[in-house]
Design a protein that fits this description.
The protein has 363 residues and is α/β, with parallel strands linked by helices. The chain folds into 2 domains: 198 residues, 3-Layer(aba) Sandwich (Rossmann fold); 157 residues, Glycogen Phosphorylase B (Rossmann fold, 3-Layer(aba) Sandwich), CATH 3.40.50. The chain is built from 15 helices and 13 strands. A 7-stranded parallel β-sheet has the order 3-2-1-4-5-6-7.
Length: 363
């Protein structure tokens, strides 16, 4: 198939990844290309040049409009709308069999567009007012929508999802996150250093439990980093930097437990399954999709309760390291994810009925 992949423009689609959405788009492009599809990545012009790239904007918009995401800035909104509108026009004229839309923009959802190019839209954020109506109005025989978890799907359609919407769990390449049979007794946390990710709560819980902790990930919110994280660093709690995948996998494999601390309704939790693939059981907050993703591979406690999180760490440490790895191999591999993507593309192209509710249910 000739496939257009439309990405979000906040960050480049290139490693080391700024977040899960950037990793998702990169691995989707790489995986589909490896399967023999002709893939064009519509993303910022400073994305990975190893792909066939159509620049939606010259550079990612965090470089031009720093720290204005989610603030309703009219200049950023106008810039993004113009870029996506032009990209959608190029996709419509580009002879593509299908569009996989990961943009978080309302424009690719318009029926006049999805009727011209069969489309799969993957939702990557909890519902918000600027997009909700357009999502709810968009299902059609040539438009499929996916959420990253059953919890995420319910958040978008609390009264029941339409037949065109289903769960598409994220997947990773287990070979890129090798299993390690033994940890060194320390805890680890990875993700974007932003308040909603809760690294400060992981720090508090690790200190309370008496475990060394290393944080990994990009600094997204400078004020949060400087005012909340930096003052807590020191002694057994340290920052290990923003590492590329292979280096991060090695660091994860050395640790004994992963702390997962979302302070929002996390739609999936890619960082958790990366750690689980390396053999780390999880101690975390039961928020968003956490219970669905982590399952028997960890122990979860009420959100933002650091005392309970510290108390859950010994129970998580008692989970055999084979358990989280086996859960990833069973449910969250790249091949399983790509198989599901290809099936969705075929549905959108054919306008075929969606699977039954039973077959769409999360494992």
């Amino acid at each position: 198939m000739r496939i257009a992949l439309l990405a979000h423009l906040r960050h480049p689609i290139a490693p080391p990844f700024a977040g899960g959405l950037e990793a998702y788009c990169w691995h989707l492009a790489a995986g589909l290309t490896a399967r023999g599809h002709e893939v064009v990545l519509f993303a910022s012009g400073d994305s990975d040049p190893s792909f066939t790239l159509d620049a939606v904007s010259p550079v990612h918009h965090e470089a031009r409009f720093p720290r204005l995401e989610h603030r309703g800035d009219p200049g950023l909104r106008s810039h993004v709308d113009a870029a996506y509108g032009a990209a959608c026009d190029r996709i419509a004229a580009g002879g593509f069999d299908v569009l996989h839309n990961n943009s978080l923009s309302r424009l690719p959802l318009e029926r006049r567009r999805t009727e011209r190019v069969p489309t799969v839209t993957s939702l990557h954020a909890p519902p918000y007012d600027a997009l909700r109506w357009f999502v709810h109005d968009s299902p059609s025989p040539t438009h499929r929508l996916t959420a990253t978890s059953a919890a995420h799907l319910r958040s978008w359609w609390p009264d029941g999802a339409p037949p065109e919407a289903s769960v598409l769990h994220n997947g990773i390449d287990p070979a890129a996150w090798p299993w390690s049979g033994r940890g060194d007794g320390s805890a680890v946390w990875s993700g974007r250093l932003a308040a909603v990710k809760g690294a400060h709560l992981a720090m508090a819980a690790a200190r309370r439990a008496g475990l060394p902790l290393t944080l990994f990930g990009p600094v997204e919110e400078t004020d949060y980093w400087e005012g909340t994280i930096v003052p807590q660093l020191g002694g057994p709690v340290r920052y290990g930097g923003h590492l590329p995948g292979p280096a991060l996998a090695a660091e994860l494999g050395r640790a004994s437990v992963f702390l997962f601390t979302p302070c929002w309704d996390e739609p999936f939790g890619l960082a958790a399954i990366e750690a689980m693939a390396c053999g780390l059981p999880v101690a975390g907050f039961a928020r968003g999709a956490a219970a669905e993703i982590i399952g028997e591979a960890g122990r979860l406690v009420p959100s933002e309760d650091t005392a309970s999180l510290a108390a859950a760490i010994p129970a998580a440490l008692a989970v055999p390291r084979s358990v989280p790895r086996e859960r990833v191999l069973r449910l969250f591999t790249r091949d399983r994810w790509l198989d599901a993507c290809e099936a969705l593309y075929a549905e959108a192209r054919a306008g075929a009925p969606s699977p039954s509710p039973a077959s769409r249910a999360a494992p």
